Amino acid sequence: MNSAGNEGVRFEGLEQEVLMNFSSAGIQATLNNLSKWLVGVVFGIMFVWRHDIETLWAICGGVVNACLSTVLKGILNHERPVLTLRSDPGMPSSHAQSIFYTVAFCIISMVEYFGCNGITAVTSVFIIAMGSYFSWLRVSQRFHTLNQVAVGAVLGFCFSIFWFWLWDALLIKAFIAHFWVRVVGAAGSCVGFLLYVVWKWAHDNKH
Hints:
The protein is mostly helical. The chain has six helices and no strands. It has one domain (about 35-205).
């Protein structure tokens, strides 16, 4: 009698553990699928908040950053951990590269507007932590190795800093001085972003 009771309790505990694992895995898979839209949503919010040419420059940089990731994948040709999930190369992780490009953009924008203080420091740490979590999901879902994600994150963060340095050092004067440069820059950024969204959608469906 006691043996049957113990078996029932053990089975019930095992069932609860399995359900918890499936629930956790399901949440992580959902968040991972949503991460592909995270960058676009953040840029949309930033554009509504700032609505300036520098944000369009950042969007253009996001497209260039994604193209850089695609080129590097073709050159390095590093296999993913599970080839049956995705057939294209995995080094660097384009998700991590795009996420950390956006992380750097958010931190730079925040410091520009509010300066360096305790609040911006804590918020920056939180943004980096969120970016790290969404990037780590690519490892937990076995789309990338940890090295592929780490390389993508470093590349995206560094490229974002370089892209904004390029803006401040070389291009901001031309945008201020010439109206036609602002028009061409804004139109080019919008068209480039739309073309990238279409290409990314087709690329993801293919693989």
